[in-house]
Amino acid sequence: MRQIMDSIEQASNDLQTPDTGRGTSAGGLRKADAKNPHLLLLMGETGIGKTRLAEELSHDAHTRGWAVAWTRAYEQEGAVPYRPWVELLRMLLKNISTGMLVSSVGSRSHAESLASIHYTPTILERLSTLLPELRDLLPQNDRTYAHYSQLPPEQERLHQWEATLELLNILSKKTPLLLVLDDLHWMDESSRELLAYLTRHIQDQRILLLGTCRDVELAPGDTLLKLITDLRREQAIVTLPVQPLTQSQIGSLVAHLPQDIVHSIQTQAAGNPFFAEELARMSEALLSSSISSENQNSAAFSPFIAHNDEGGIDVSAVPPARGTLPEGIAAVLERRLGRLSSECQLLLGKAAVLGGSFEFNQLLYMSNELHEDTLLDLLEEALHAGLLTEEGSGTHITYHFWHPLIVSHLYERLSAARCAQLHRRAANALLQAHEGNEGEVAAAITHHLMKGGGDSLQVAHYAELAGTQAYSLSAYIEAEQYYLQAIKTITQGKLPLREGVNESAPSKSATSLTDIPDPLHVARLLERVCECRMVQGNFEEARNGFECILALRISCQPFTSEAGQKYEAQIQALIWREIGHTWASNGDYEQAYECYKRGKLVMQDAGVTSGAAWACLHLQHGSIINLQGNYDEARRYVLEALEMLEQAIQARQAASPEWAASPPGFVDAAGPHNFQTRTEREILGDPLDVGRAHELLGLIATSVGQFTEALKHLYRALAIFEQHDLVIEMAKVCSNLGAVHAIKSENAMAYTYIHRSLELAERMSNLPIIALTTGNLGEMAARSGDLLKAEEWFRRSLAISERTNEREHQCWCNIALAIALQDQGNLQGAVEGIRRALAIARAMKSARNIGGALIALADLRVTQAIIAAKLQGNMRITHHSASACTRLLLRARSTIQRAIVLDGLETELVVEGKVLLANIYFLLGDLQAARQEAMRTMEEARRHELTRMLARSYRLLGHILAAQGEYEQAGACFEEALQIFRDHAMRLDYARALHGYGDTLLERSTPASGVYQTGLAHLNEARTIFAACHAAIDLDWVDQSLTNTTTEILEI
């Protein structure tokens, strides 16, 4: 019994297939097993996976040698006594020979016959009343038993049960039995009573009864509920509620579909695998149909049917369509609804218009023809039937539908006219309930107004209000959708739309903009749309939006006074700055610089050459030239911008003290037309830009190796962002802080800030920052020697940056991934990564990124050279080495010498390149040049606080000094390197230092000496670490060293 219970525990907890992976209570099973329960009941709603879990357990029992028999009860056969047990017993007896069956349960000795005063039927005879075919196996004189049995019916029934139990006992002695009874809720009363009898009377036999039951569909007085309660009290049953699948498990179940459809199914299925599979089949058919339809007719997209980057339909953005639920799901839902009165069903249909949850007063407003007591009675009926749940108390009671799809099904039953009427009522109910706080429910009001054919001015008003509310909550995807809906409603569709790019992307070039109503207001809304797109990393769409804003503002000429024209010029210049930002994010610095010049020219033409807007352009220019590697000029521009920004903010605060108390970005949801756009805030002087200036100064300082200065500016930026609760900026600066601490090998601080950044970025759904942060986590994993985790982080980061087309990050990430793959021994993957990085960097004309790729290429060639020469721990090239090895090293030297002199290369990369150059000199046998270069690099690393490069320099110097015979100094260098690597948890570097030191100790000692044993211990420790890090090449090299050591000992 213990074995099958372990199997069940394993299946319930560890069989994490998409269909059955659930966490049931293993502790409960152990407790139950201690009391020898023989009935396990899987309970849950329709389609939740009870039968599938039972099948998994049956399969596992069968593989362990158990005899498994299945039966299933059917609703239509609920009046047939014992039908499930008859089927199950027949299945058990099917493989039992007639002779064995008769000898086991059908024979009676002659002595028994003579001694018996009254006729006593055999087990076989008693079973023949359930299984008539067994009568043919009885002796001729026993076949009349069924005709003259004089026992009362109750006693006869008991004998049948006893005979069934005895048969199971006999069969279980040969093979353990697992008897599965599916859908117990439809089982007849006699069968339920037999189940109860067997459960109570099976003792130590190897028999397990496994049942499934839809407990949520049982009426309160159902006898099965009473039976379960009694058996629980007797501790004769284990009940396991089968929980819904998690979102990730549903995702795995339908992973073959596009990601947007997967997300939709995850939401709609609510953990029910049957619903998920049915929705997946329907989605596949709809997807094929939509692709065919789009190929034939490329009509403009509906504003509420989002399209993903590949042009696929985002099903999650589509409201429930009428009559689109799969038939299987509809049948299940209709069965649940069929248990309700028609009045209750009608009421729930009205409630479905309100969505998945609703309040009592809302439903009362929509059902004004019903008395309040009648409404409560109907709600209680739905609650008792399990169609609704409730929470709260007093006047704040909220009702929730049992499942999202029941809402869709009820909604589909309504006629179109009734739907429209109910949606209008719902909108009015929300307005009445939230008077004065409409912003909280603006999204729902907008939905109901649109579905109910509401006034267009109302739709636009509440759509804008919903967008502003979502924006204030940093829900940028939703904010974009609602702002776009407001724009479309205001313009009555006259604003040109670009086809084939996400939903309703405006383009200035399609038609004239002169007929657009209220163009200035539309431009301001569109600016919010572009802000949302920038956060999501949709830079091309944002750029097109910003271009449309410029066209709108130019077409309407909103200001005639000189002051107004200067104000407008600054707005337009800042829009040009934003367009440049989109180009820079895609790695096109030339286009970004052209936008900077256009913006500057617009302001100069208007006579504006100072102020916050002018400072913002300076800040943009500093950012561009920083990315191009011109750090001194970038710092000058940023410092000038910072000074102008601080002056503008001081002047503004002095003129309007209350402005200082309201953080930029504050949104009054009650007055959407009063919100400030980002450009409007920046003209006045925005602390956000001051924080960005400090952040940029920190990045510049990092690039030139001034890490203390960098941290000072980054922490100042973080303080500003935290003061004004600028979450996105906080996420970005935290990631940069983590990166600087990582460079300084301050790992604890690095992890703290990087994880905080990732948490904030994921909360905001900010893809660019998520890419940055996951890349930094990959770098941290690589530094600690967790190469597999590093590869996983780098690939995730790279995938996101490819989606957003951030070429700068793609370049860096390809290099980092190549290094991780090289350390794992995947040299071909490393070559491909470096090749991709070089191609991107050259396309960008970025000397800084080219230099980083060349350093990685040189390091790869050094690794290839060592492999080619098979330097078994010698670490130097001699005249015996292969010419291929020498050629690779010479090419690596040429590459590194070219890379470290390129403009804009960060200090850390320069120092890393110099360490690599010193190593190349050493491998080529030029020990003097290697020593000099290593010493210079060591001082440079110490000056810039580059801990990892300092330790690597010590390690290399230890190799060089040992080769020169200066063993004591070499040992000191190795010990220093080991100490630094150990203190900063750099496992892979630490193991490489152990390997090198161990080889050195072995070379200068004999096997009997303590020094030799220390060297051997170093090699073994290094090997353990290499294996744990999955550093295949290093592992191979240390194995060669250990093999050579074994050979030397054997020779001695």
Descriptors:
8 strands, 67% helix, Rossmann fold, single chain, flat, mainly alpha, 48 helices, three-stranded antiparallel β-sheet, 1052 residues
Question: Helices, strands, pairings?
Answer:
Elements: H1 2-13, H2 26-34, E1 39-43, H3 50-63, E2 67-72, H4 83-93, H5 98-106, H6 110-115, H7 123-127, H8 145-148, H9 153-174, E3 177-182, H10 189-201, E4 207-213, H11 223-233, E5 237-241, H12 247-253, H13 259-269, H14 273-296, H15 327-337, H16 342-353, E6 357-359, H17 360-366, H18 372-384, E7 388-393, E8 396-401, H19 404-412, H20 416-433, H21 442-451, H22 456-472, H23 476-491, H24 519-536, H25 539-556, H26 562-585, H27 589-605, H28 612-627, H29 631-655, H30 657-661, H31 678-684, H32 687-703, H33 707-723, H34 727-743, H35 747-764, H36 767-784, H37 787-804, H38 807-823, H39 827-844, H40 847-869, H41 883-899, H42 907-923, H43 927-943, H44 947-963, H45 967-983, H46 987-1003, H47 1010-1029, H48 1032-1051
Parallel strand pairs: 1-4, 1-5, 2-3, 3-4
Antiparallel strand pairs: 6-8, 7-8
Helix pairs in contact: 1-2, 1-3, 10-11, 12-13, 13-14, 16-18, 16-19, 17-20, 20-21, 21-22, 22-23, 23-24, 24-25, 25-26, 26-27, 26-28, 26-31, 27-28, 28-29, 28-32, 29-32, 32-33, 32-34, 33-34, 34-35, 34-36, 35-36, 36-37, 36-38, 37-38, 38-39, 38-40, 39-40, 40-41, 40-42, 41-42, 42-43, 42-44, 43-44, 44-45, ...
